[in-house]
Amino acid sequence: MAFSEFRPLDEKSLREYIKAVPSLSSKLGNNFDDFTIKEVGDGNLNFVYIVVNSAGSFVIKQALPYIRCIGESWPMTKERAYFETLTLKEHGRLSPEHVPEVYHFDRTMSLVAMRYLEPPHIILRKGLIAGLEYPLLAEHMADYMAKTLFFTSLLFRSTTEHKRDVAEFCGNVELCRLTEQVVFSDPYKVSQYNRWTTPDLDRDVEAVREDNLLKLEISELKSKFCERTQALIHGDLHTGSVMVTRESTQVIDPEFAFYGPMGFDIGAFLGNLILAFFAQDGHADEVNDRKTYKEWILKTIEDTWNLFHHKFIVLWDEHRNGSGEAYLPEIYNNPEVQLLVQKKYITDLFHDTLGFGAAKMIRRIVGVAHIEDFESITDASKRATCERRALDFAKKLLKERRKFEGIAEVTVAIRQLQY
Amino acid sequence: MAFSEFRPLDEKSLREYIKAVPSLSSKLGNNFDDFTIKEVGDGNLNFVYIVVNSAGSFVIKQALPYIRCIGESWPMTKERAYFETLTLKEHGRLSPEHVPEVYHFDRTMSLVAMRYLEPPHIILRKGLIAGLEYPLLAEHMADYMAKTLFFTSLLFRSTTEHKRDVAEFCGNVELCRLTEQVVFSDPYKVSQYNRWTTPDLDRDVEAVREDNLLKLEISELKSKFCERTQALIHGDLHTGSVMVTRESTQVIDPEFAFYGPMGFDIGAFLGNLILAFFAQDGHADEVNDRKTYKEWILKTIEDTWNLFHHKFIVLWDEHRNGSGEAYLPEIYNNPEVQLLVQKKYITDLFHDTLGFGAAKMIRRIVGVAHIEDFESITDASKRATCERRALDFAKKLLKERRKFEGIAEVTVAIRQLQY
Questions:
Q1: At what angle do helices A137-151 and A262-283 cross, to 10 degrees?
Q2: Which of A159, A176, A219 shows the shortest C-beta gap to B159?
Q3: Rounded (10°) angle between helices A137-151 and A80-94
């Protein structure tokens, strides 16, 4: 350990820190003459540095005891770096192709060092705004979600392992509370942090606050988020937590991780793809009307769910004689009951996914944290039109999610709302 | 602490222990000449001693590292005494009229001393077998359940308090696993521990193991039991965990306590009342046909649920501007939405209650632990008839619970199955 107590690093002190930590300095071939440090934290919460020299590279992420994008007025435990690291390691073990390797963790400093995702890796959200297609994205995300969610659930785990890990991640309560507030509460009430495209969406925002059926549904999802310890979820799996090239898909930033409902992760990803879809009209121009790209997004939404569903069931079938507590082989190993329980499990998960996806969409339009997909549409009236379509769709999805029987019905409904 | 390491006590060593512990010896007026110790543990798990002299009295309960009724071949952590004590204290704080006071706890010895529930207190189950009416039972149990469940849920608690306590009670995993096995698994498969009235119920037991729809339903309840941290539940709230007189109702033995679904407690109590109902025909004789008593049991079932419902909603309304995370006042404080969310919450809880109640009934007929209500019917064929009616009703309740809209519909269905 390089420092005996916490201090926020800057480029200069980080340089000293790296020299003092063998696992980091060895990555640079112990050559400290030519290495460069660049601060790149464009997220909402942390400081992120890229460290590179001719021998190697890594990323350093340090959590400060407040939320970076708001400032010291919104304190937030720096212990989140510990839970992020635990999750990077556990999800990395389960899905090594899609999670960056952890090189070093320093709990005192709330600092984690991990693989630098070199160019041309970019944040998926930026790729979606630029209109870039990622042919392997659905396959990769389905694989990551199927593995991380299946193997940390009671479909694979014993209750002993499950309760031990649930207890550990109860420690990440401050990050859970942040989600409870900004996803499940603030958008449905007057809050100093809420923002929206005004005055265009003023009535829409009010309508959300006055919609009793919407509040009924969001309360059910909030209870599931707070009470259902289904799997070790990423907790913030939007398109800004994924880095991509055409060949590679890497999931980063699991500092919100805890034992929660699987649908919260799948919904976050699909919901943000739907937001990207509704933002496309704001990015269309004479050169590119984005019509083909919109179809690609819809196909990616369908493929992600369908591939996830397939991979999840394959894992279940492979491990149905394992030690998972939920469906003991002596009870459930006949084809008919196996089909029944899997169908019910997936149907419930699908409806959770749509509900949480809708909740994540709504909060990005009327809550504190907006997304570049919409924010980069400079014409406010055009942006409001895109946002209103997305909001209307999300409200419908949240209230009527149990009527949808498959993902194709969802993309049909999205198409119907686009004009 | 009287002993520096764990040892099972007998009457002689307990005598020395009491003398060495001031909080206990003072209860006896520090007079050790005349005090008597009587071992009375008739439960399945522990050793229980009643200690009395002219100055005072108390009960000593010691957990040994195995299950008493099975023996050392079924090990079980003695740490359960710690979780029992935690829960006696917390539930006792919330419902002091219905939980015996804790005088002393010794974690090393897995020993708890508490109020002796003096005669005429008897175990409720024995009263039900004897055909005794308890006019305040429904009111008292409704009060106990409403308070303990409401105040330990997110209707009253902040997420911070909730996750802290959830984490603590994850430590009681061995007792949770025991319930998972004997309630949710063993009855639905071949298990060395299962027992039933044979040969009369052989076909019925087989039918349970071959009923795919029943297995589908029990899997959903098992998942809720393992994953849903709704409130600090007693975890074993059958009629053997309640001591009564005509005026007093005392809930004991919460060693299975953890953060689980509320319906598991309410269902355990109502399910065991339904079992008591179906056992009555086996206790009828020329002197007493038990018809009036059966009506009293049905009324007690209805009253318990209806009073619980009423009291729970009163607590919710009283505390709706409090710090409970689930329904923030800024969002839910309009009469229309308040009605909507309360109706949904109670409907879901009602169906959980019926499902868990049914599961607890089934396991008492085909699983390892039977109940005196049936066991005391010496004529096997008569007993089998009573058990079969109860089993058929429980299967129907488990599979069709969502069709029941109120407790009166349940008692109507019970009546229909009695002949």
A1: 160
A2: A176
A3: 110
Work out the minimum CA distance from A291 to partner chain B, whole angstroms: 39
**φ, ψ for residue B205 (rounded to 5)?**
-65, -40
Q: Which chain A residue shows the shortest CA-CA distance from B329?
A: A189
How many contacts does A have with B, using Cβ atoms within 8 A?
121
Contact of B220 with chain A, judged by CB distance below 8 Å, is answered with yes
Residues of chain B positioned with their CB less than 8 A from the CB of A323: none
How far apart, in whole angstroms, are the C-alpha atoms of residue A251 and residue B87?
A: 41
Q: With an 8 Å Cβ cutoff, is B15 touching chain A? A: no
Residue to test with chain B: of A153, A168, A173, most B Cβ within 10 A = A173
Average of per-residue pLDDT across B389-404:
98
Q: In the predicted model, what is the mean pLDDT of residues B381-389?
A: 97
pLDDT at B181: 97
Q: Which of A77, A154, A163 to mutate to test the interface with B (most CBs of B within 10 A)?
A: A163
- Residue B247, classed as helix, strand or coil, is coil
CA-to-CA distance for A324 and A248, rounded, in angstroms?
31
Q: Is the CB of residue A291 less than 8 Å away from at least one CB of chain B? A: no
CB within 8 A of B351, min separation 6: which ones? Answer: B263, B401, B402, B404
The chain A residue lying nearest B344, using CA atoms, is A216
| pLDDT tens-place string over residues A156-197 | 999 999 999 999 999 999 999 999 999 999 999 999 999 999
Reduced to 3 states, what is the DSSP secondary structure of residue B75?
A: strand
| CA dist., res. A306 & res. A221, Å (int) | 23
A226 near B CB under 8 A: yes
Pick from A370, A15, A399, A46: nearest CA to A196? A370
Q: Do B215 and A160 touch (CB under 8 A)?
A: no
Residue A16: C-alpha distances to residues A19, A28, A103, A309 (Å): 5, 13, 17, 48
pLDDT at B340: 98
Output the average pLDDT for chain B: 96
Minimal Cα distance from B261: which residue of A? A227
From chain A, the residues in CB contact with B328 under 8 A are 185, 189
Residue type, A306: N
- Predicted local distance difference test score (pLDDT) of residue B43: 64
Which of A168, A180, A328 shows the shortest C-beta gap to B159?
A: A180
Q: A159 and B180 in contact by Cβ < 8 A?
A: yes
CA distance A374 to B230: 37
Average pLDDT value for residue range B348-373: 98
- Interface contact flag, A226 B341, Cβ < 8 Å: no
Give yes or no for a contact between A140 and A98, defined as CB atoms under 8 angstroms apart. yes
Structural domains present in chain B: 11-114 (3.30.200.20), 122-416 (3.90.1200.10)
C-alpha distances (whole Å) from A225 to each of A181, A229, A262, A282, B332 are: 12, 8, 9, 33, 18
**Model confidence pLDDT, tens digit, residues A194-215:** 999 999 999 999 999 999 999 9
Q: Which residue of A has its CA nearest to B213?
A: A337
- Which positions in chain B touch A341 (Cβ < 8 Å)? 215-216, 219
